[in-house]
Amino acid sequence: MEDGVIISGDYIQMEKDKVKRINEHNFEQVHDVESDNLYRSKCSGILLKTPYYPYKYDIMNTSYKYMPKVGDLVIGIVKSKKLDYYQMDINCNCECIIHKIESFKYATKNSFPNLANGTLLYMIVEKINLDNNSVVASCINSSDVKSWINYENYLGELVDGYMFPVSISYAKSLIGDKCYLLDLIGADVSYEVAVGHNGRVWVKTDDPRETNMIHTALKYSFGKTKAQMDVLWKSIYNLGKRDT
Q1: Secondary structure element (H or E) that encloses residue 108, with its range
Q2: Which fold has domain 70-155?
Q3: What pLDDT digit, counting tens, does each position of 121-155 carry?
Q4: What is the domain partition of the chain in residue ranges?
């Protein structure tokens, strides 16, 4: 099952112990009298186990269009301001909103984020409404104890920095529990990073040249081995430091 090439429309016989560990958004069950565990794929790619909790099996490909899933971390862009919520762009074919008060830690009617169009938010997909094809996101994380106004919570506004797109599969590998490339860069450069399942990466450093170095490394490291990443990053880092 794992590491196999999947074509959209392929029929796959799932083992019983793996049925609960597949991304149901990319598979649909086929009701067959001879088998209870027959599924059909909705897209093409390579079937792999995701490197982050809950480690489900998913189809990895080079698509840049995001399919929302509850619990995903996403980077959204404020599109417009409404009375009680903001409309967000999360790189998908559906509407996304985030409530001004309910979706921010300790926000009240008198104290809530006043966000301008173009503001970046690091959010979590909280609810998907199939009836009207919309997504509700939130900036509240269960481990956060401080108010949204401190800019110290895990989720919330991404201030300054630089955002760029990557493929959905690449984003999933970067957001894994242990990302070799991000650790490699962190050994030489101090930086902040936020990666969204929706194919967006945000990077912030104290030096714009270091931001450009990280962007270049991430841009050209997709599909590389660890040894190739080592050579690529050291070349970029040494060249960047030589120009300072």
Answers
A1: none
A2: OB fold (Dihydrolipoamide Acetyltransferase, E2P) (2.40.50)
A3: 999 999 988 778 889 999 988 766 566 566 667 89
A4: 2-58, 70-155, 160-239
